[in-house]
Amino acid sequence: MASGGLIPTGNLHMAKLEDISNDFLREEVETFVTREDERENLIARYTAATPKMQAIAAGVVSARHHDVDGMTADALTSGTSALDVMDHGLIAGMALVGIKFRDMKIFVPEVLACARAMKAGMKHIEPILAASGIAPTGKVIMGTVKGDLHDIGKNLCIMMLRGAAFQVIDLGVDTSPDDFIEAVEEHGANIVGMSALLTTTMPNMAKTIEAFIDADLRDDVQFMVGGAPVTQIFADEMGADGYGDNAVECVDLAKKLSDENG
User: Fold this and answer.
1) Distance between CA 118 and CA 150 in Å, rounded?
2) Any idea where the domains of the chain sit in the sequence?
3) Residue 27: what pLDDT?
4) Domain 10-132 of CATH type 3.40.50.2300
């Protein structure tokens, strides 16, 4: 199953920036990825990918949706598996996009353009995965909390989660605690993701968790939270089960929580 997140470096930990064969990706990592752990993991990811997969990732990062469309189709025709194209090409590209967006190196229009490129590739992947009968990695309810109308970061997480084979129910923005509860009961999901971009709406994350406690549902779900003003400390104080700093960490966290749910 595609990981959709940062891969363990393992025996790839010695990979170096210059080992990335794609010039564009190498320059992007060198220029925009400043956190050492993220840099090491992206270098490991890209050096482990074939030149064709690196080219697809570069196409996503540079928002060339027509090129990604064609390269994805060609890769599948030539025998590369759908999971490999998705994980090592499309998701690998969006991993870098998510970091750049978080660090304000790109903004909403650029993210939407990159997302369009990923979708151009996913339209070839999704029918293959559907036909294969591969079970979803897990089921996640996602929403921006009550009073908050921002959704770009949430939507990026959703795209990455779906790329990693999660079934995602998107509740949109301005989502009340009751909306989250109804969605969990309707869909039987055991992971809830909450996003907030405003400090004034962050407390509504805690209110949502409290509502699940009052409804005697807290033990049935695990909460992951994120958003620009959210921190690990705040997540711990509200009683969330996990915090993700970006879309890549969101997928890694969802996989961890899904594994814990067994």
Assistant:
1) 21
2) 10-132, 139-261
3) 98
4) no
